[in-house]
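User: structure tokens for this one?
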Amino acid sequence: MDLATILIIIHASLGGLGLTAGIISMASKKGKKLHRTSGKVFVYAMLASAVISIPVCFMPGHENMFLFAIAIFTIYLVLSGQRALLYKLRNLKNIKTWKDWLISGVMCAFGVALIVEGAFKLLYPNGPTVLFFFFGIMSVFLSVQDFRFFARKDKPATEFISRHIGQMSGAFTASFTAFLTAGLQLKHWLVWILPTVFITIWIIYWIRKYKKPKLVK
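Assistant:
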């Protein structure tokens, strides 16, 4: 058994654990012990799974730019989603926001790189440009939203919860998409996009439940 196979098995095992914990967390009552515990398992399992998948995406016979993009996407969403919860639990003056600017800045640069890569793919008749542009534009859009959020002095208390829900649900979507494309070998481009559409409906539903602002300074 070579190194790539070992890493893939560990990656898949952690990903399966993370997805299971994510489903439990999403289905359980928000704020309760089961939600918090399963949420922590989701965070650590997804981060470890995504980090392990990165070198695999560049190993001979396993090269996959899209799965690499999903790994970066997952890491960004999990970290920013967890940071949003930290914002809610502590006074904003005690938060080192440079970490948030760094996380989102790296994601923005990554998004620009994907868009540029997509532009180069236009030179090839069968180049999968849709996915490069989709993930690239999504990355830049989310990063710009982050920058606007960080720059504001007054933030509604409910916005921290909304941000947490949105980012964590996005991380679940990215991981589930990777499972469909890499695990089940479903290759159609719609498989990459439809999970995002469905989870967006979920996010909108929950965010609307927390939309009564209470300013926190």
